[in-house]
Design brief:
Layout lengths: L4 H7 L4 H6 L22 E6 L5 H8 L7 E4 L12 E7 L5 H12 L3 E6 L2 H10 L3 E3 L10 H14 L6 H6 L2 H8 L12 H9 L3 E6 L4 H14 L4 E5 L7 H4 L9 E7 L5 H13 L8 E4 L5 H22 L8 H11 L1
Parallel strand pairs: 1-2, 1-3, 3-4, 4-5, 6-7, 6-8, 8-9
Helix pairs in contact: 3-6, 3-10, 8-13, 9-13, 10-13
Amino acid sequence: MLDDLKLIHERDAQDALGVAEKQWQQIQQEYPLDLTTPSESIQRVVFGGMGGSALGALIAQSWPGFNKPFEISRNYDIPAYVDSDTLFFASSYSGNTEETLSAIEQAEAKQAGIIVITSGGKLAEIARQKGYPLLLLPEGLQPRHAVLYSLKALLTATDILGLSNGSAQQLASKAEFLKQSLADWLPTVPTANNQAKQIALDVIGKSVVVYGGPKLWPAAYKWKISFNENAKHIAWANQYPEFNHNEFIGWTEQPVDKPYAVIDLRSSLEHPRVQKRFEVSARLLSGKRPDPIVVEAQGQDLLEQLLWTIALGDFVSIYTALLNGINPTPVDLIEKFKKTLED
């Protein structure tokens, strides 16, 4: 079925596969930015965002990392320590996420420095009215499909402020690597040679559990979100080494029947002990949980491995959606939920 291009086109009515294929272009996007926040006064950074709008920051915590404390706040309320020495990023792709609008109001009250990342909506209006630095993302996508836009925007700001060093250009330099990687998973590549299609076929009808080490944790979490929203397919994610201190033992007994698909995202760049934990865990849990689908991240450095693994997950989840007979793009129930909250 996944080699039937006509059927794929019919089910993927809003061309999620086309968006995934072109995501290498997102890291080439340029963001003109006039920053007035005095960088020497920044002692800590808080990034406020929900769902896909927080994923760019999650990636950045793994690569490149920052030289000041950096926390992601997924909530209506911001951390109590936020003050005038805090830089607060308000991130909402739509610009209308109520948690983020609440958070920016609190950050204002605490006189934090504020930078806005959005494609429009109320958040863009606030930034323009109050003169906050505004990183305006291209509009028309689902937040989960605009993650690399958000990552590039964040790094543009942190480079200027000295919180990172040349990271935005390093990201942009990986465009050709990502473009070539994406070509391996296109719908025109037959299933026999297409890793993304093969994994999608392996997970159909099963609940998905994705594991990563600390370096690939952002990719594992992105896979979870992509399964949830693209495929409308239940999925969870967790990371090593924390896995071995609790969830590991949970696989050993109940329930006896385990209709799960386990996916291990492994990196040669993880701490050697983390790499060994994957191997030992798989051996000791053999026969107690499904054997993991092992994905070995490709790339010469951590950035390449993150980009490669995240993009593979996008294609896997979209193909899973098509196998489920589902249009990958809409998230109608989330939109209904938001409207019902307003009633």
